[in-house]
Amino acid sequence: MQSLRVLAPADLLVTVRGLSFSRGERVIFEQVDIDIRRGKITAIMGPSGTGKTTLLNLIGGLLQPAAGSIEVDGERVDELGLTEIYRLRKRMGMLFQSSALFTDLSVFENVAFPLREHTALPESIIHTLVLMKLEAVGLRGARDLFPSELSGGMARRVALARAIALDPMMIMYDEPFAGQDPISMGVLVKLIRTLNDALGLTSIVVSHDIKETASIADYIYLISNGRVVEQGTPAALDRSTSPWVEQFVHGLPDGPVPFHYPAPPYEAELLTGSAL
Amino acid sequence: MTGWLQRLGRYTLELLARLGREGLFLLRLLQAQVFLFSRPGLVPPQIHFLGVQSLPIIAVSGFFVGMVLGLQGYVNLVRFGAASSLGALVALSLVRELGPVMAALLYAGRAGSALTAEIGLMKTTEQLAGMEMMAVDPFKRVLAPRFMAGCIAMPLLAGIFTAVGILGGYFVAVEQLGTDSGAFWSQMQAAVEFREDVVNGVVIKSIVFSIVANWIALFEGYDTEPTAEGVGRATTRTVVNTSLAVLALDFVLTAFLFGAK
Question: Is ipTM > 0.85 here?
């Protein structure tokens, strides 16, 4: 793989080119190209187990690609040293599926954590900043609770407040709607959109919840079997006639993604009978 | 036949890879210690968790071990009319061997397993990855202070175990069985050399054991397979591996420090 330095146009915050990645024998990505535009919400969608979370970890530099390049704000994530990657990560926020709140710290301290670690601000300013971030997600009143006392939706909002604590340029959401009730789902959908627009962020949302994601995304990538199978605006995807998009959008049990896990022919297996 | 060879080969390769990971882990852990100069406040809470909260089990076990030593020593020494040497026997056993070894084994069970479970769960719930994404190095922020605290706490626990053990021996020998109190202490004073016994025994041994015990506990937590089952297995491995390592190292250290000259 030749090391191409991709010259990204100015409106692209993240460019992924020729990305390949595998776990052991299993190929997760093969020659994947993805562009994330500044100021927009880009959704990465696909069935479970297609490596959507892996993609976020690759962009965040938590994993190294086998081949290809990942550029964030003009810097090659896959080539940065430890110090530089930490410097870049201060400008990236990430919302983990499990929220990843520190269980031994209160809500207030969780949101204050990045501020205390990376700034030397006096306590009064940290107090003000944390309350502002918590107010933005509607949980100013919950500041003294501990993560174990929060509902799943609240935990995710606290994690969101923590992710925006350092005023990052982008936020990556890993399955923000998974396992949420309709109300907290609505809250999160609204939060992702308003925060993106109010704070001038760039958002990457990884999800398989079609309806919610399509309602806020500006651009969608559909990934399956390690490749980008379709991409476009929500409206364009809605008009797509590809059988794959059809199956994913309408939740059909069988189609390009087969119902059956690969197996030898049914008849042959029953007749030979391994028990004999 | 080839299947057996294959398994042996795979096992050996896995073992070597694991040893390599463990070595690199210790290296990063030691490098990260420098960070503690700028954040010394991170260490005391861990000393409280690993050391102070281990005190009850260490003190109670130490007292019982001392009492057993006193009793067994008395029963056997009195036959030769040497019950006055009881103080020397109790103190030398504890200072040279039982203090550091028992304290390390108890530490592995009480604090080491807790460390592994804590780090393993932090990994499983993505707290470590979350920290990395917030540009905070978990080696510096989480692992380094725990390592430092463990290495401070464990030698102190070994010292306390030894001291309480001697009191336990005194309690049985003098208070219960009526050995002469003056003989108990003076024999001990005459037999125990500071440099030969205390430094070579409880001090050096417990420092070495504390490095090994905390290294294993933190590594197993950090290397955990991120599932509930994985954390359980890692916790067990910490206790088993630390116990084996401490007992094996104890023999090596004894051979070097007290071996026939």
Answer: no
pTM: 0.86
Report chain B residues touching chain A, CB-CB < 8 A: 125-127, 129-130, 132-137, 141
Q: Give residue A3's pLDDT.
A: 43
Closest by alpha carbon to A215, among A185, A253, A247, A244?
A: A185
Helices (H) and strands (E) counted in chain B, each on its own, are: 12, 0
**Tokens matching residue A214:** 């399509």
Measure the CA–CA gap between A179 and A175, rounded to whole angstroms.
9
| CA–CA distance, A203 with B23 (Å, rounded to integer) | 39
Contacts of B134 in chain A (CB under 8 A): 89-90, 113-114, 117, 162, 166
B7: number of Cβ within 10 Å: 10
Beta bridge partners of residue A228, listed in sequence order: A223
With residue A95 as reference, give the H or E element that holds it.
strand A92-95
Q: How close B141 comes to chain A (CA, Å)?
A: 9
Does A146 lie at the interface with B, CB-CB under 8 angstroms?
A: no
A17 contact B CB<8A = no
Closest residue in B to A98 (Cα–Cα): B125
Q: Which residue intervals of chain A are DSSP H helices? A: 52-59, 82-89, 107-118, 123-136, 152-163, 182-198, 210-216, 234-239, 243-250, 266-272
